Amino acid sequence: RTVYVNGQYLPEAEASLSIFDRAVLFADAVYEVAAVIDGALVDYPAHQQRLARSLKELGIPLPVDPDALLDIHHELLRKNALTEGLIYLQVSRGCADRNFLMPHKATPSLVLFTQAMPLLDTVAATNGLRVISRPDMRWGRRDIKTTQLLFASMMKTEAVAAGVDDVWLHEQGMVTEASSSNAHIINDAGVLVTRPLSNEILHGITRAAVLDYAAESGMQVEQRTFSLEEAKTAREAFITSATAFVTPVVEIDGVAIGTGRPGPATQRLRELYILRSRSTHGG
Ligand code: PMP
């Protein structure tokens, strides 16, 4: 695999980041993951807007101009002949002696790599996911997409050790997110219920697109907090992320959701999302 690090395309074995990079010492870095289908980027402009926002929140400059960044994406996809999978981008503040005080003048590091993987045809999409709930103990700025992912990684690992696929995190019983995706339910009235945007959740690019597509297709959408209890009695549940698209959730804490099989509205939203992503990619 060819990867990109600070201006160079290199074989992955030759690519490296300094041990003094603040990504390593403080998770002082932000990232984006975009899907690639049919060799093309999905929803690239939205990912770039969120990247810009994350960088602004942390006061890290983007080390290349936006046009050059898109060229790097295209070049990396081409070099790796990627047709289906993901492209990962990380910007860190750069190198400095270890100090909690952020350096004024550091040169940001830019890293990109691709990962080939099936996204369209997956076991999770066919069978749905089983999740367990856990208290959300992450920090309070989940709207900034930082590489500080340890709690989510611990919870994902705990879920798999418990024999299920993932966690749904909650604060005082109100669902926040899954370990690496946004959480949604569809109630008996056919209303899509999802937590509103705030500092408590990542502003998912897939979430935003799916809410638009759902509304356009005549589905009612309610942005409000919802409890684990409400989720367990919902007709359908699903998660969204750049690489999961729309993936059904069929069980929460051992309780079957709806029929215990992927629901029809969720499946329709997944199909709609994929159809739209394929027709609008022009990144
Ligand atoms: N929430 C969290 C915590 C995530 O890590 C992700 C994916 N990185 C998402 C939501 C989904 O965001 P997106 O649709 O932009 O991939």
UniProtKB/TrEMBL annotation:
Cofactors: pyridoxal 5'-phosphate
Pathway(s) per entry: Cofactor biosynthesis; tetrahydrofolate biosynthesis; 4-aminobenzoate from chorismate: step 2/2; Amino-acid biosynthesis; L-valine biosynthesis; L-valine from pyruvate: step 4/4; Amino-acid biosynthesis; L-isoleucine biosynthesis; L-isoleucine from 2-oxobutanoate: step 4/4; Amino-acid biosynthesis; L-leucine biosynthesis; L-leucine from 3-methyl-2-oxobutanoate: step 4/4
Superkingdom, natural source: Bacteria
Entry keyword annotation includes Transferase: yes
GO cellular component: cytosol
SUPFAM superfamilies assigned to the protein according to its UniProt record, in alphabetical order: D-aminoacid aminotransferase-like PLP-dependent enzymes
Reaction(s) catalysed (UniProt annotation): L-leucine + 2-oxoglutarate = 4-methyl-2-oxopentanoate + L-glutamate; L-valine + 2-oxoglutarate = 3-methyl-2-oxobutanoate + L-glutamate; 4-amino-4-deoxychorismate = 4-aminobenzoate + pyruvate + H(+); L-isoleucine + 2-oxoglutarate = (S)-3-methyl-2-oxopentanoate + L-glutamate
GO annotation, biological process: amino acid biosynthetic process; folic acid biosynthetic process
Keywords: Aminotransferase, Folate biosynthesis, Pyridoxal phosphate, Transferase
Enzyme Commission no: 2.6.1.42, 4.1.3.38
Transferase among keywords: yes
Pfam families associated with the record: Aminotran_4 (PF01063)
GO molecular function annotations of the record: 4-amino-4-deoxychorismate lyase activity; branched-chain-amino-acid transaminase activity
Its biological purpose: Acts on leucine, isoleucine and valine. Involved in the biosynthesis of p-aminobenzoate (PABA), a precursor of tetrahydrofolate. Converts 4-amino-4-deoxychorismate into 4-aminobenzoate (PABA) and pyruvate.
Family: Belongs to the class-IV pyridoxal-phosphate-dependent aminotransferase family.
PANTHER family for the chain: AMINO-ACID AMINOTRANSFERASE, AMINODEOXYCHORISMATE LYASE
Protein name as it appears in the record: Aminodeoxychorismate lyase
